[in-house]
Amino acid sequence: MNKRISLEILPLNFRHEKEFLMNSEFNTWFKLSKLEDTDINYILNRNPLCTESRLKKIRAISIFIFELKINPSQAYLLLHCGIASIKALSTIDAHIIEKRIGRLKRSLNIKNDETPSIIILKDWIKKAKNIMAR
Prior knowledge:
Elements: H1 15-22, H2 29-33, H3 37-46, H4 52-68, H5 72-80, H6 86-90, H7 94-108, H8 118-133
């Protein structure tokens, strides 16, 4: 399994969910993007250390990865900036996302230059609008 579809890169705070998902039928980003609420309830019944909120975050991340064709760190960034769905992304302005990313980087004291450009953000929004139009 390559890094693009591997769940190995999930952060430490998802450790219980990652362990369960990697050993289940929901072991790829594609399968996670198709996760239903009934599947989440099934997972919660099978593993009480998993939480509903973290599983829903993982589902949102996987939808971003699969639908927008972005990498997991970019999907995490969108989620941490308060954008939790394709619909939410399709209705927001790229400059607002840019401001939120800047605020997040300042609050976490991050000094890297891996911030998506405004052009990339606009491309993600355009893809989200196309998905919503389907």
